[in-house]
Structure formats: structure tokens, C-alpha cells
Write a structure and sequence with these properties.
By secondary structure, the chain is an alpha/beta fold. The protein is built from 15 helices and twelve strands. Helix 1 (28-44) runs parallel beside helix 14 and helix 3 packs parallel to helix 4. The relative contact order is 0.18. It binds iron/sulfur cluster.
Length: 346
Amino acid sequence: MSTPAKQVIVEPAALLAPGSIAAPEYSAGELEALRASIKQLLIEKDAVLVAHYYTDAEIQKLAEETGGKVSDSLEMARFGNTHPASTLIVAGVKFMGETAKILNPEKRVLMPTLKAECSLDISAPSEAFNQFCDLHPDRTVVVYANTSAAVKARADWVVTSGNAIDIVKHLHEKNEKILWAPDKYLGQYIKRETGADMLLWNGTCVVHEAFKSDALTNLKKRHPGAAILVHPESPDEIIQQADVVGSTTALINAVQNMDNETFIVATDNGIFHKMKQVAAGKRLIEAPIVGEGATCVSCAHCPWMAMNDLRNLKKALETECNEVHVDPVIGRQALISTQRMVDFNA
Ligand code: SF4
């Protein structure tokens, strides 16, 4: 029987609503000038661009054109860890920059903005999390990558949605009881899939939590041939309707490999850029994030991911601002759990 997690109160001002930050727009002339400058700066600064699937499509294009990487957070970490460039420029949210720094303390890690948070990271302040762990010393501490360096330092394992089930299954087979943080929906999903004894922290992703089940059911009725693809940070009633549940990479693979011509996608709509690239001609529909009768049905976009654009990317490279720093003591401790994630092979 699980004990409820100690509730952490997150100030509303700290959270932003999905879709509340507009996607960047560029004139044709500005776009070409920014692209040319950034390409030149990447060479001059011995830097490589590592971007998440949820970032601006122009950032994703540039990463691929310049030998960088566009991927989920697990592959972003692996890529940054093996690439020879002395500077990593990480387009995504704060925990991704910190993860890159934890894995590569000798490299310089820059970000287009240091203001890009994540509601999951915010939901688990290290002091409250440490107290929670202290109450349950018999449990193996497994945390999602969407956490601060200090929380990773307290953890035994870091996981992403790409390897969480395999890692928890591995621990469950060794009869380990688990303390999980911060995403309660992902935790519930993993618990069901593995049967592991998991005590869950009470965090959520503001984007995935907003998907609405009745509206999704009705959308599916209008598109009976569509496959529903769901990221497991979504609530259970959304997951129950899924044909495929998985990480961003798993959902992209599903669009590419399944025979359906139409897909309803319950994750951040930044992923559509890559999905269109790998499965041109297939129809992609955003899962609704509001109930019947409301007008907003296309704003499943992370407000913090939307803070990344070509302008602040160029500025960070040019002025070497927005460098990510992790306290070396915390970083060395966090490296143990983070390196386990990178090295784990199911
Ligand atoms: S989409 Fe959700 S989990 Fe991902 S960075 Fe944004 S708030 Fe965090």
C-alpha cells in the first residue's frame, strides 16, 4: 500500500499554461541571416547543437543540417556525452542543460535561455524531496530525467520515458521497492506495466495533464481509422484510449511504421515537425486539450520549450551567455545515477 507523497505547493506564478508562449516567427530575410550566423558560430566556437523534438522546427532543422542531434532527452544525453565538440548548445529546458553538464563537466554547456523550466522539475524541490526520501530509506530512489541536478544527486537511478519500464522491471526483478518522482501519471503507468512496488511523488506535466478524455473519445469517433499515440506523462484515462504508449521516439517510430493513414497524437505538438519528416503524407491530428465546446484545440505546446528560438540561440553562441553551471559536488553525485541511465541496456 503506497503512502501519499508529501504535497509540495507550487506557486501558480511559477507555472505557465500550455500554449501560452507563441511559437517564434521570422521574416524570410531574418531567417536566412540567423541560420547563416549560427552555422558560422557553431564552427568558430567548436560547438554542436543538441535539440529536443519539442523545440522550434527551425532549431531542429539547423541541428540536423550542422551535424548536431534532434532527439528525446535520453538520446540528447547520449549524444552530448560522446560528441567531441568542446561546447554543447542545448535547446530544450533547464534539466536538459544540467544533464548535459552533469555528464560532461569538462565541456561548456550553453542554452538559448536559462528561463525554460519544466513543471515536473519545479514540482520536486530538492529539500522537500530529500525529506521524502529520508522517510523511506528502504526504497530505491528512481527519478525521471525531468528533475534538478540536486534531485538527481539524491537518486539511485535516473530514467527517461524511453527506458523507465525496462529499468523499473530490472529493479523489481531484484525485489527492490521503489520511490518514484516526480511525474505521478508516468509513475502510475510504470507501476501497472511492471507490477513493481512504487511510492509516487505528486508532480505533473502541464502539457500532458491538459489532454481531455471525453474530447479525445469524440475525436476518435470522427476518425475511426486513426491510431491514438500517447506519451505516458498523460493521465490514465488518455492512456487507456491509446493504441501506442511511449516516449517521443517511440511515437515517431509508430507514425513511420504503422499502416494507419491518420494519427491522433497526445504529446507536445513540436513533435509534428519530425513526424512529418519521417512519414510525409500521413495525417496528424493533435489530441484535444480542452473539453467539448471550447475553442482551443491546438495548443498542446510546452510554454518553456517555446522560449527557445533562433534569436536567443545565436545570442548565446555569440556572447557565450546562458552557460549552465552545476555545483561540482552535486554534479559528481548526480553523475552516478545519470550515468546508470545512459549505460543501461535492457
Ligand atoms: S512538455 Fe511537460 S515534461 Fe516536457 S518540458 Fe514541458 S512541462 Fe516539462
